[in-house]
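Possible race condition, two jobs.
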Amino acid sequence: MAGIRRNSHRVLNHGLEPVGTSLPASGGDEREFARPRAKVVKLFAFHCGGERADWAALDPFDPHVGTKIVIPYFFYLVQHPDGNVLFDTGAHPSLVNNPRARLGAVADAFEVLLTPDDSLRHRLASVG
């Protein structure tokens, strides 16, 4: 390929892999390069329970105040070749059995909708 310099290590350091070498009759060092390998990044969204609350929890001035709604809880896993990242890791596991112990009197404002299967550990096990 035209334009490849003799010290093509700079190209190799940017994720390109040599797939073969062909030496032209002139004796130059021309290499063919594969395209950079794409890094696969996966994003998982896990539903991990929720709460039933009054619409006022979202907007106390909305005309729907008094209407009960379900507010879902989620957490997210990003699987990246350089490592995994967890974002917003869901509700604290103690909310399953005793929300009042964790939240105090505010727990009376809504109904926690969690099971042991909604835990971070259990949900992560589903992707291995």
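Job #2 (started ~2 s after job #1):
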Amino acid sequence: MGPLAASGAFPAARKAAESGLSYTSPIEMRFGDSRRGVRIGAVLVGAGLLVYTVTAAVPPLDNNDIWIHLTTGRLILDEVSVPRSDRYSFTAAGNRYVAHEWLAAAVYAMAERAAGNAGVVVVAKVIPT
């Protein structure tokens, strides 16, 4: 029997106690044993801090050239050579093309093939272009 039932403050508690049933008053439910609520709250706060830390530590890709690097890198890996003519533009197709960042492009393409977009994000933070 809880302390409120023993005090007789709640007639339903006294009746439940006399019949052998347990009774927890609304006040005891609200303010009684709150350890479980504290644990859940701590887990939620910890998860929120973890998500915030990860998103703050990995800013978005702000390199607009990442798409040309990926496309050039895919060509390099598929053809095992650096492209020498322009294949990307409509008006200058076939003109001389200098892939001056060909090594970074190949590394981006390898990271994409190995780990998908997550691999590209990690490599983009390591290799400045």
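The first helix runs from residue 3 to 7.
Logs attached separately.
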